[in-house]
Specification:
Elements: H1 10-22, E1 33-38, E2 41-47, H2 57-60, H3 63-66, H4 83-93, E3 102-107, H5 111-120, E4 124-129, H6 134-143, E5 146-150, E6 156-158
Parallel strand pairs: 3-4, 4-5
Antiparallel strand pairs: 1-2, 1-3, 5-6
Helix pairs in contact: 5-6
Length: 160
């Protein structure tokens, strides 16, 4: 039996899922999708946007734009929750352990998400786009996380 030539690798498969999940984002600035995976099984998903039951930025406007907050700074000044945080919260809400799992994300996590991922037991991160946050990279390195960037062609580059 031969495999189909166009069958994606598991890395490409989960990275493609992050793009689909990101389409649910309600953020006006950036659509981010995240999935947590263990043993080639999807554990939880998350996208960035306002908490459940709270009006979305499409209705209220972007608080960060109104306050002129530059990208990558003052993360607390936002109505939204990051995709990585929502993936962690979803797993906790349904009682799913994410210890020793892998994060696939459209963007490299910020320092706040990085702290949560480290404490959640995430061991590996695959991301598509960069995110300028030197503190996040320093913490990932110190915690011993494996970090990979996956380009649009599916090429994988080890970052840490």
């Amino acid at each position: 039996m031969t495999e189909k030539a166009d069958r994606p690798s598991f890395i490409r498969y989960f990275m493609d899922i992050t793009e689909l999940v990101a389409k649910r984002s309600t953020c006006l600035r950036r659509s981010v999708g995240a999935v947590l995976v263990k043993d080639k099984r999807l554990l939880s998903t998350g996208y960035n946007g306002a908490p459940s039951g709270i009006r979305h930025c499409a209705e209220t406007g972007c608080l960060r734009e109104q306050l002129n907050v530059p990208s990558g700074e003052r993360h607390e000044l936002c109505r939204g929750i990051h995709a990585e945080q929502n993936a962690i919260i979803q797993a906790a809400y349904y009682g799913v352990s994410i210890k020793d799992s892998t994060l696939f994300c459209t963007h490299l996590p910020c320092s706040i998400c990085t702290k949560m991922l480290i404490n959640s037991g995430i061991t590996t991160i695959y991301h598509a786009s960069g995110y300028t946050d030197p503190l996040a990279m320093d913490m990932m390195k110190e915690a011993g996380l494996e970090v990979y960037r996956v380009d649009t062609l599916g090429e994988i580059e080890k970052v840490l």
